[in-house]
Design brief:
Elements: E1 17-18, E2 21-22, H1 23-28, H2 31-34, H3 40-48, H4 52-63, E3 67-69, E4 84-88, E5 93-97
Parallel strand pairs: 3-4
Antiparallel strand pairs: 1-2, 4-5
Length: 136
């Protein structure tokens, strides 16, 4: 039998597209034109309407950089791409530059609320087997 070799395709370095639209095309679209290509959760949130706080955050982001917010449930819209937002993680504000790939995701996905736990080695007396470990 001949050995089957699979070639890995090189990673694409093209411009990011969302459902065939570039970020510039998405920015130029109105909210009504964006609705059909949004995921269902984002579409539902937009159709129900933004809260007053979310509208304030949208206006501040449109005005300039340096916005600090506790609103983790805000949908990232195309006009927010490239802006820097400080999102509250429950303990501190995490500065996030909104990536192109983050369109229609939530702010909270970029400011994690839990840290990764890395446990150290077991101490003396931690287990029965450590009784036989020399101290030094």
């Amino acid at each position: 039998m001949a050995k089957k070799t699979t070639k890995r395709m090189p990673k694409r370095r093209e411009e990011y597209t969302y459902h065939g639209y570039t970020i510039e095309q998405l920015k130029a679209m109105s909210m009504d034109e964006l609705l059909p290509i949004m995921p269902s959760g984002a579409r539902r949130k937009v159709l129900r309407g933004f809260t007053r706080d979310e509208e304030d955050v949208r206006a501040k982001i449109a005005a300039g950089d340096g916005v600090r917010t506790h609103i983790r449930s805000m949908i990232i819209l195309p006009e927010m791409v490239g802006k820097t937002v400080a999102i509250y993680s429950g303990k501190e504000f995490v500065n996030v530059e909104i990536p192109v790939e983050g369109v229609f995701h939530y702010f909270g996905e970029f400011a994690l609320t839990r840290k990764k736990v890395s446990h150290g080695s077991a101490g003396i007396g931690a287990t029965r087997s450590s009784k036989y470990v020399p101290l030094k």
